[in-house]
Amino acid sequence: MSAYAEFDKERQEIDALLRQGYVITGIREDLNGAAVQFTSSGPGVNRVELLLLTADSRKYVTTLIFAGANPAKPLETHM
Amino acid sequence: MADLRIDLAGIKSPNPFWLASAPPTNTGYQVQRAFEAGWGGAVWKTLGDPIINTSSRFAAVHFNGQRVAGFNNIELITDRPLEVNLREIYETKKRFPDHAVVASLMVEPKQEKWHEIVKRVEAVGVDGLELNFGCPHGMAERGMGAASGQQPDLVEAQTYWVKEVAATPVIVKLTPNITDITVVARHAVKGGADAISLINTINSLAGVDIHSWNTIPNVGGQGAHGGYCGPAVKPIALSMVAECARDRGVGVPISGIGGISTWQDVVEFMLMGSTGIQVCTAVMHHGFRIVEEMLDGLNNYLDDKGLASVTELTGKSVPKYSNWGDLDLNYKVVARINEENCINCNKCHIACEDASHQCIDMLTNADGKAFLHVREEDCVGCNLCSIVCPADGAIDMVALDSGVAPMTWNQRQKVISGLNSSYSEAEVV
User: Fold this and answer.
1) What keywords appear on the UniProt entry (chain B) (predicted)?
2) Residues of chain B that touch chain A, judged by Cβ-Cβ distance less than 8 Å
3) Are residues B419 and A26, on separate chains, in Cβ contact within 8 Å?
4) Rounded mean pLDDT of chain B?
5) A66–B375: do the CB atoms touch at under 8 Å?
6) According to the model, what pLDDT value does residue B425 have?
7) Is residue A52 part of a domain?
8) Distance (Å) from the alpha carbon of B330 to chain A's nearest alpha carbon
9) Structural domain boundaries enclosing A18
10) Residue of B nearest to A35 (CA)
């Protein structure tokens, strides 16, 4: 799989959670990558963790928050 | 024609081109010929207690047909009595009153030694002093040169002693053989330095003869480390000049040194904060007359840029030089191959496959013609393909609009820290 494809897969997972109403509530970075915690106040599962492996995903997820969109929303990017 | 005059901490010169303290400034004969050729100033070969040199003292590193890509020397300071040098300095200054003559000095780190030499040198009319705290070989073994320059407190104290008696501007020449050159630069300023010059030579061994197993150079079969200079050291020098130029604790004029060979190099050093520059290796390689081309090139460049004075260049690129953590992570460039200029040597493909991110494909079109194609989405914009490409105009690195706001590493880390702290400990993963 190309590096872009790996990133795109992770980005779609991030965007899907955001569309479902989840909010990014924590990021822990270690040797394995970035563990991103998503929390939802709605019914059912209210906490999901994604382990982001690619550099572009780890950049993307923080760009979302830095851009002032938390509750973060997917960005229309060319990344 | 632009005004090329400079004023470095009170030392005036008809142009920014000075000879560095080195073999080309060993005698009045040489310095006067240099001034006739067009050099604006000279830093006299370092004065101090006369030394004895070895025979076989220079060596060079040639790279892929490029002679003298780097230059190594184990020569020490002047081997001539002070009075002889002073007489020639006096005669030179008398003949060229408008040119800058700066005396490079190196003595033991004792107050009385510095006082004595400063008074004697200034008495013959030098325009300034340069304290040599940089030479890495020979003199350093005797506690001078780089041995002094690697101790910030000793640099400060000796500068202070010089300033106690000096009537002319004092330049402190810094050694690059240290972890952080700005520390020493700040101490020089605390000691009263009016300016700094950098870099002196870098510790080096030019090579080893694989047949005789002798070092290069060797003195009867024995070698010792020397000082490295020439084009190969320019990036190191430029970086150190830039670090000093942007350090608010330094804040004095800079005389840039290190591998300067062309007028373009001069422009780069000035843009990165130098008020003037010094040259040695290029003169040792090509002679004094290289300054003619440097003068023409600089003049034309300034005219093209519409600049009235060379001083307008100083420091213009310093605000563009920052820390890695302040660079925009969302900035993106990608490689674009121009087929009309590509010679299909495939070096870009090999470089990308073996050393980067495997995003340049070798393809064949419908006519059976081979071509190279960049998968832009996988290109990280490392520049390697354009660096190894031998064909002008075959690869462009093109900036893309990522569609998102700039974000630096430092900003990113603050975002993560802020996010994690805004939730309770239990909430944070």
Assistant:
1) Flavoprotein, FMN, Iron, Iron-sulfur, Metal-binding, Oxidoreductase
2) 329-330, 332, 357, 359, 375, 377-378, 380, 400-405, 407, 411-412, 415-416, 419-420, 423, 427-429
3) yes
4) 95
5) no
6) 47
7) yes
8) 8
9) 3-66
10) B429
pLDDT recorded at residue B427 = 44
Does A16 map to a domain?
yes
Residue A79 lies in a domain: no
Residue B83: exposure state from Cβ atoms within 10 A (0-12, 13-18, ≥19): exposed
Contact assignment for A76 to B403 by CB distance below 8 Å: yes
- Asked whether residue A8 is domain-assigned, the answer is yes
Mean pLDDT value of segment B353-374 = 95
The count of domains in chain A is 1
Chain segment B131-175, per-residue pLDDT in tens: 999 888 877 788 888 888 999 999 999 999 999 999 999 999 999
| Residues of chain A under the 70 pLDDT cut | 69-79
ipTM: 0.89
Using an 8 Å CB-CB cutoff, list chain B residues near A37: 427-429
